[in-house]
Amino acid sequence: MPEVTFTYHTGTVRELFNTVRLTGNWSAEGRQSGEWRILPMDAFRDNHGCLAYRATVSFANEEAGKEFFWGVIVNAPGRVDLWGIAAEYGPFASSELHRAFTLDAKGGAQSYCLAGGRYLGANKYYRKEGEAPGIRFSVWAPHAQKVETVIESGNGDGYIWNNGKGAGESFAMTRDASGIWATSPDDPALTDYTRLEHARYMFRITREDGSVAFRTDLYSRCQAGKGTVNPEEGGWNGKLDDLESTKSCSVVKNPDSVNQGGGADEADAWVDAETFWAHEFSPLAPVPSQLEDLIIYEMHIAGLWTGPQEGQAGPGTLRHAMGMLDYLTDLGVNAVELLPMSEFEDTAGWGYGSTHFHAIKYDREGQDLFKRFVRECHRRGIAVIVDVVYNHYSPDSERVHWMYDTTRHDHNMYYYYKGKQEDYPEDFPEGGYCDNYSTGYLPNVGEEMVRAMLIGSAAAMLLDYHVDGFRMDLTQALHSFNVLHKDGSPVPEANESGIRFMREWARTLRLFKPGVFLLAEDHSGWNMLAREQMLGGVGFTASWWSEWYHQLIGDADQDSAKAHLLRNAGYGTASPLRMNVMAGMLLGSPGHVVYHESHDESGNSERSARNIEVAVNGMLFDNTRAWGEARCRVVAGMTLFSAGTPMFFMGEEVCAREPYRHGDFLEHREDFKALRESSGGPMFRFYQDIIRLRRENPALHSANIAVLKAHNQSRVLVWHRWLGAQEFVIVASLSNTPYDGGYVFSHRNLKGKTWVEVLNSEAPIYGGPGGGNNEHVDSNEGTMNVAIPACGIIVLARKN
Q1: Is the distance from CB of 144 to CB of 101 less than 8 angstroms?
Q2: Is the pTM of this model over 0.70?
Q3: Helix, coil or strand: residue 388
Q4: Are strands 739-746 and 783-788 parallel, antiparallel or unpaired?
Q5: Which of 115, 430, 630, 663 is the most exposed place for a label (fewest CB within 10 A)?
Q6: Where do the catalytic residues lie (predicted)?
Q7: Angle, nearest 10°, between helix axes 448-463 and 492-512?
Q8: What is the DSSP pairing of strand 542-544 with strand 592-595?
């Protein structure tokens, strides 16, 4: 009887599942069956030290040649009967999640890996249980004729050149049926992992046409170099730190140990991961676990202040981010969203051109300091969300993704390519790639091995770095915008592959951590992104709602149909504002991340600027600053007191005014701590108070919201927030004149209640003139009369 051994690799050393069971469409006699059989799987540690589970099934001889389906059911703490297969099977129209195989008369083996980061690249390999690990190098290169791992000689300059200069010892690799090449675990030179720990290496690939190329490891956890120099182009002084990391060698890094020094090389600074994470959390400062509880501070680490303006020594690093944590704790935010942390081209960039998804940007101080940063955030009750970019690679991907093992465009396997190279003119073979309005061709997310690389990197961020969530960049470039480079014609199958990829990504991460925050940046209006998968959706937690910004602040295309409240108020006229449009935005805010400033709209996109500049039409002087700050307080309050999840870009809380552009942000950095102690102090205090008010009152972070009045002529918007017996009324005005005698509005929600003012944005402590509602306000008949300052926001709480 043919026997098949089924193995389920979790891809993690952590014990996440209580029990794992195999299920498939066969009977107890080993014949095809309409009823799926369930049987237990035995736990074991695989050769890479990860938890895995296996079971063997005997099939009837006459079943050979037939197709069988199988899957895995897992139980985890607090969760039962979870489907353990995340990848979809079959044609695009199918969303089946099982695996399939044709039974061989000799039996065989079937396996599924949930996360592949510890199986490809440079990883520990345990030949026998209880032995110290050796090292195994592996790489996917299905078109290669030959592949070798080469170690940097140690006698040169620390770099392996394209002509082979700098290469030292090499190790032969053999190919399996899936196109994965691996070194032999029996090679005596590879039986001691510690011998090659921190070694620099590359893969020497004899490509499909016989040419030889040196390629970095796409599963690398570290890329050497912190600079901008590509030695192949000349001008390198031989210093390793000056190398452009995406062009240099990969480095063997142990994912199970952490350098407590965060970059130092002293041996006594290293501890095992379990010890490092042992005291990660504080009971006095719990990390938020629900989307509606988050108040997100968007941070670009490279843009942090590093010293006096005349002598700032390059981009900010994780050390500077660590230095901001007390500041953020004082501010009161409970989540930081970081621009991409994976390796990317250059040093002074935003990171939206990733190369090595498993490696933390080395010039930001690398993986060890990033782990320290996450741990320190968690100790302060701050969740960490990281931007990830899957819609394109770095345009300069030689030595990385581009033509990794071939010179044929249709075999350029990390990129989506439609058809054969011969389908396109000889002088335009690039015609088969997909453009998607990003800055590069679409990655080949329809290929399982490419998806495994990308999803595995996110799983590593979750499991090894303990991040709490992700924001996926420009998702419409995956699901809607793909067109053929040849002629711009739509490529619907590319869009479908993008949707499948996003679903698998979400499923995998939720198997590891059900409460992971999955945010989508999307500008298409597609309503399926944040819908549950069981309802046909993709499965994100929420989407960034850029429309909130465009209506509240401004818009690059000057769309006259939009409210553009802050921009229009900044002209200083008394013209009506479209408060009714913003009323609709408030009602639509639940389930969205809403923001009044982000990295894209703080000077980078056309006609955008920092809000303090927008608020006075770019005329920020001593005599206009009070108006600018007052209007900025209003839009901040509208975001914080909406029913969405609020976010703002770093510096907004201290009235940062310098433009934040992709090309020159280093020259426009500001010292937020110094601004807090000077001109930005009153605004910082206002942010502290509105953040505290939202966090301490469940009604203000519930989904319950109703608009009580929106009046364009008076520039007033009033809304109601409640949960149980707790209620708030928020009154926002962008009128240039105060309503000292009161502003009257009525609504049935207000009947028979008394209110007390708990926040006035124009209080003297915020730099305003004062005034407001010192006595309680009654609404016995459903009518309120509230004093409103010019360009102010008032919060009234129901008095019980």
Answers
A1: no
A2: yes
A3: strand
A4: antiparallel
A5: 663
A6: 473, 521
A7: 30
A8: parallel
> Tokens for 272?
């095992």
Same domain, 181 and 306: no
Q: For every residue of 714-747, which 3-state class applies, written as one string? A: CCEEEEEEEECCEEEEEEEECCCCCEEEEEEEEC
List residues bridging with 99 in a β-sheet: 70
Residue in the structure block whose two tokens are 């353990």: 84
In angstroms, the first-to-last Cα distance of the chain is 76
Token pair 């020594």 is found at 313
What is the full DSSP assignment across 395-428?
A: S--TTTTTTSS-S-GGG-TTB-B-S-GGGS-TT-
- 443 pLDDT more than 90: yes
> Does residue 500 belong to any structural domain of this protein?
yes
Q: What is the pLDDT of residue 264?
A: 42
Report if residue 276 sits inside a domain: no
With 90 as the cut, is the pLDDT of residue 538 above it? yes
Give the tokens for residue 54.
């296996």
CA distances, 637 to each of 521, 590, 662, 787 (Å)? 23, 16, 28, 17
Q: Are 508 and 518 in contact, with CB atoms under 8 Å apart?
A: no
Distances (CA, A) of 567 to 174, 564, 756: 63, 6, 31
How many distinct structural domains can be found in the chain? 4
When pLDDT is cut at 50, 70 and 90, the band that residue 644 belongs to is: very high
**Nearest CA to 628 among 736, 467, 471?**
736
Residue type, 735: S
Please, which residues bridge with residue 649 across strands?
A: 298
Same-domain pairing of 690 and 766: no
Contact 782, 748 (CB under 8 A): yes
CATH of the domain at 535: 3.20.20.80
Q: CA-CA-CA-CA torsion for 616, 618, 620, 626, nearest 10 degrees?
A: 10
DSSP summary character for residue 415: B
Beta carbons of 639 and 548 less than 8 angstroms apart: yes
The CA dihedral of 259, 264, 268, 270, to the nearest 10 degrees, is 10
Burial classification of residue 179, based on how many CB atoms lie within 10 Å of its CB (0-12 exposed, 13-18 middle, 19 or more buried): middle
pLDDT at 242: 86
Q: Answer yes or no: do 231 and 318 share one domain.
A: no
With b for 16 or more beta-carbon neighbours within 10 A and e for fewer, the 136-147 pattern comes to bbbbbbbbbebb
The kind and range of the H/E element at 546 are: helix 546-552
Active-site residue (options: 473, 555, 600, 689): 473
Decide if 760 contacts 792 (C-beta within 8 A).
yes
Q: Are 228 and 174 in contact (CB under 8 A)?
A: no
Mean pLDDT of 394-399: 84
Reported in sequence order, the residue ranges of 267-314 that DSSP labels E, i.e. its strands, are 270-272, 296-299
Q: What CA–CA distance (Å, rounded) separates 705 from 29? A: 59
Is 129 part of a structural domain of the chain? yes
What is the dihedral angle through the alpha carbons of 416, 420, 424, 426, rounded to the nearest 10 degrees?
110
Q: Write down the mean pLDDT value for the chain.
A: 93
Instruction: Give buried/exposed letters for 598-607 (b at 16+ CB in 10 A, else e).
Output: bbbbbbbbee
Q: Which residues contact 798 (CB under 8 A, 6 or more apart)?
A: 725, 726, 727, 728, 753, 754, 755
Cβ 514 vs Cβ 469: under 8 Å: no
Using CA atoms, how far apart are residues 294 and 287, in angstroms rounded to an integer?
9
Same domain, 489 and 623: yes
Which two tokens mark 248?
Answer: 């240099």
Domain extent, residue 735, equals 703-798
Residue that terminates a domain, selected from 696, 713, 743: 696
- Whether 778 is catalytic is no
Q: Indicate if 155 and 97 belong to the same structural domain.
A: no
Domain edge (last residue) among 84, 113, 142: 113
Helix 625-640 crosses helix 681-696 at what angle (to 10 degrees)? Answer: 20
Separation between Cα atoms, residue 537 and residue 609, nearest integer Å: 35
Nearest to 686 by CA among 629, 761, 769: 761
Average of per-residue pLDDT across 467-487: 97
CATH code for the domain in which residue 198 is found = 2.60.40.10
Given 148, 298, 346, 521, the catalytic residue: 521
521 is catalytic: yes
